[in-house]
Design brief:
- By secondary structure, the chain is of the alpha/beta class.
- The protein folds into 2 domains: 6-28 and 326-447, Aspartate Aminotransferase, domain 1, CATH 3.90.1150.10; 35-301, Type I PLP-dependent aspartate aminotransferase-like (Major domain) (Aspartate Aminotransferase, domain 2, 3-Layer(aba) Sandwich).
- The protein is built from 14 helices and 13 strands.
- The protein has helices at 6-10, 33-42, 55-75, 89-100, 122-134, 154-160, 183-193, 221-224, 249-254, 291-308, 322-348, 374-383, 396-401, 420-447, and strands at 83-86, 109-113, 140-144, 165-171, 205-209, 228-232, 243-247, 265-270, 275-277, 353-356, 364-369, 389-391, 409-413.
- The strands form 3 sheets. It has a 7-stranded mixed sheet with strand order 1-7-6-5-4-2-3, sandwiched between helices.
- Helix 5 (122-134) links the parallel strand 2 and strand 3.
- The longest helix is centred in the C-terminal third of the chain and has 28 residues, at 420-447.
- The mean pLDDT is 95.
- The protein binds pyridoxal-5'-phosphate.
- Pyridoxal-5'-phosphate binds at residues 27, 88-90, 117, 119-120, 171, 175, 209, 211-212, 232, 243.
Length: 448
């Protein structure tokens, strides 16, 4: 089999037994039973890390540190020194913002896009409109447009980048349109600016928000040549609470810490006059970290491979071969793309419905039914057993750019465990809701 054995995959989860049609996966995915049980399996050796000489502490520390290796391998990062952990994508992006804060010079600019989730817009708005002005520095925030299909306008992006562009912040995939900017082109555009960074490089730094890209694509941070890349594990089968920031090692070395405190300092090297930072990546691990969450999140990646291939990486700490990661993500990508194409075809057969975004997309479809509130649609879907999300999905800028009033849509989104039946049930439920509406409006038209 070179696709997915979906029934086998589903047998690892509890939600099917509850009869749920889980089609809100772009918000968060479901946790497989093994990961929930892993918390309990870790309990006998429960201890803090880097803070004890007991066998339990050494064992937990080894597992915690090995988690960074798994994540580095998943991203094809050179080593764990480039991997830092936060609560989620949002906190990871804020960490970049705060650690670069002092480097911005009066007259610099940050270039981002109208496709961004608020996590990759509001921190830069805060930096440029709130924080730096109070420090007497003017830094402009420029936003690149998208086209009629929700694809990033690369020419417009290029026109915004100049020699004062310190940073380009771009989504890897829009959580509203599902469109995926060509990151190689975005890198070229960021390079062309030629900004003189304090590290000696002459180009804009590139930060990619991969929250919607990571769940269905193999990410290769070296091939992408990104400076920063963030994603959240709760969209990749792990329980809530852990996000990753990959950053190039020399940038982390050079950067100010994001948070100050215990464990991020070199052991014993704190005096009344000076403080020395710990080695990477621990320089970015201030205070007791989310130890169990980190271990379980890294194991989620190993389990993901086992769910798709006949392997047994889960529970171990050995190297994760690149070919396995690529194969697994290619299969997940194909399966979820098929479901998404089926969903779009089904929805588009309805003349009272508009879908947003291009053909080639991540596994989500946002839509509106003419004359109906997307919130009412999501609630009506829920009454029919189909889980959806209504709102702006934190892609407020894009909803506003489309002139949607209220700035909202209803969204269905798929993961590796979804079936063709899930899609058909969702499409049928939408058809009923839209049909009910059109019958009423046709009647009103006849009467009127
Ligand atoms: C594109 C994108 N960026 C960032 C986020 C924020 O992720 P988190 O809530 O885990 O910080 C999301 C979550 O929906 C997202 O879709």
């Amino acid at each position: 089999m070179n696709g997915l054995d979906v029934p086998r995959i589903r047998s690892h989860f509890d939600f099917p037994a509850a009869g749920r049609v889980v089609t809100n996966n772009a918000a968060s995915t479901q946790p497989p039973r093994e990961l929930v049980e892993l918390f309990r399996r870790l309990a006998p050796w429960y201890e803090n890390v880097h803070r004890g000489q007991s066998a339990a502490s050494r064992r937990t520390t080894a597992m915690f540190e090995a988690s960074y290796d798994t994540i580095a391998a998943w991203l094809n990062a050179p080593s764990r020194r480039s991997v830092t952990m936060f609560r989620n994508t949002t906190e990871a992006i804020n960490a970049v913002m705060y650690s670069l804060l002092t480097e911005f010079r009066d007259g610099d600019n940050v270039v981002s896009t109208l496709l961004e989730h608020n996590s990759n817009y509001v921190p830069w708005h805060g930096l440029c409109r709130e924080i730096l002005p109070r420090l007497g520095r003017r830094v402009e925030l420029r936003l690149a447009r998208f086209d009629a299909d929700g694809r990033l306008d690369l020419d417009h992006l290029a026109s915004l980048v100049d020699e004062r562009t310190k940073l380009v912040c771009c989504t890897g995939a829009s959580n509203f349109f599902g469109s995926k900017p060509d990151l190689a082109k975005v890198r070229e555009i960021a390079d062309a600016g030629g900004y003189p960074q304090p590290t000696g490089e002459r180009r804009a730094l590139l930060l990619v928000d991969a929250a919607q890209l990571a769940p269905t694509s193999a990410l290769d941070v070296r091939a992408l040549d990104v400076d920063y890349l963030a994603f959240s594990f709760h969209k990749m089968l792990a329980p809530f609470g852990v996000g990753v920031l990959y950053a190039k090692e020399h940038l982390l070395d050079h950067a100010m810490p994001f948070l100050y405190g215990g464990d991020m300092i070199a052991e014993g090297r704190v005096t009344a006059e000076s403080v020395a930072w710990n080695d990477l990546p621990w320089k970015f691990t201030a205070g007791t970290p989310n130890i169990l969450g980190t271990i379980v999140s890294a194991q989620a990646l190993r389990l993901l491979v086992d769910l798709v291939l006949p392997t047994s990486f889960f529970g171990g700490a050995g190297p994760l071969p690149r070919v396995a990661v690529e194969e697994v993500m290619a299969r997940i990508g194909r399966h979820t793309a098929d479901l998404t194409a089926r969903c779009m075809a089904g929805l588009r057969s309805n003349s009272h419905l508009v879908t947003y975004g291009p053909e080639r997309r991540t596994p989500l479809v946002a839509f509106n039914i003419e004359g109906l509130s997307p919130f009412a649609v999501a609630e009506a879907l829920d009454r029919r057993g189909v889980e959806a999300r209504a709102g702006c999905h934190c892609a407020t800028l894009a909803h506003q750019a489309l002139g949607l009033d209220p700035p909202a849509s209803c969204r269905l989104s798929f993961a590796l465990y979804n079936t063709v039946e899930d899609v058909d049930r969702a499409v049928e439920a939408v058809r009923e809701i839209a049909g009910g509406y059109s019958a009423i409006s046709d009647l009103a038209r006849l009467r009127g």
